[in-house]
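Lab notebook, design round three. We kept the backbone fixed and only want residue identities now. Task for the bench partner: fill in a sequence for the structure below.
Input structure tokens:
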């Protein structure tokens, strides 16, 4: 089978879910499918992932991190 016929499906270890309403709004962070914390900023995402043992060097790398319900700049409910 060729690469085209068998596309690689990425399963990043870190998933940042959509913005949750609150004061301030936050996003839930999962590592390996388990909720490990809340993030109110990009720095929080890096801290939570690092505390869970997953260093994130590139917030745009889909092999490492998946953004759900917005990208890395989405921090407010629209």
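Proposed sequence:
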């Amino acid at each position: 089978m060729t690469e085209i016929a068998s596309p690689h499906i990425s399963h990043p270890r870190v998933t940042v879910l959509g913005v949750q309403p609150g004061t301030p709004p936050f996003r839930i962070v999962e590592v390996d499918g388990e909720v490990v914390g809340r993030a109110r900023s990009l720095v929080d995402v890096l801290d939570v992932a690092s505390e869970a043992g997953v260093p994130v060097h590139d917030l745009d790398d889909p092999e490492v991190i998946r953004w759900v319900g917005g990208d890395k700049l989405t921090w407010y409910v629209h």
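Keep this in mind before ordering anything: The radius of gyration is 14 Å.
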